[in-house]
Design a protein that fits this description.
The protein is an alpha+beta fold and 125 residues long. The protein contains four helices and six strands. The longest helix has 10 residues. The chain starts with a helix and ends in an 8-residue tail after the last strand.
Length: 125
């Protein structure tokens, strides 16, 4: 989906909940039992939505079923992104986990399934 199509979809839902993947893309990495998720807005105008709604608390709640114990968020405004560091979410890490995704690569899709609500001010875009 092009950025223009993404913006058209996002603004058509202004004031409504949309999945995060409509506004951003993500990359995952791991180190031991710690997951690193980088999240970047497709459009800089949506970065404020990410800052307001992709909070440490919401991300921790999203990953609680996997045993996550803490989330730290680092904003990267120059890239309209953020880095989320999630502890104890990989069930022991690549060498200790019995799941099929010990590296946590697919967990970026779990993050992107989170719902966010667009503001009315984005309607004019």
């Amino acid at each position: 989906m092009s950025h223009r199509e993404t913006n058209a979809v996002a603004t058509s839902f202004t004031g409504e909940e949309v999945p995060l993947h409509r506004l951003a893309h993500a990359r995952a990495g791991d180190k031991g039992n710690r997951l690193n998720l980088a999240l970047f807005a497709y459009d800089p105008l949506h970065y404020e939505v990410l800052i307001e709604q992709v909070t440490e608390e919401r991300v921790l709640a999203l990953f609680a079923h996997r045993g996550a114990t803490s989330v730290r968020r680092y904003l990267v405004p120059g890239l309209t992104g953020m880095n989320l560091v999630i502890d104890d979410v990989l069930q022991g890490g690549v060498n200790g986990a019995l799941n099929l995704d010990g590296h946590g690569k697919t967990l970026s899709f779990l993050l992107l399934s989170m719902s966010v609500t667009l503001k009315k001010t984005l309607m004019s875009r």
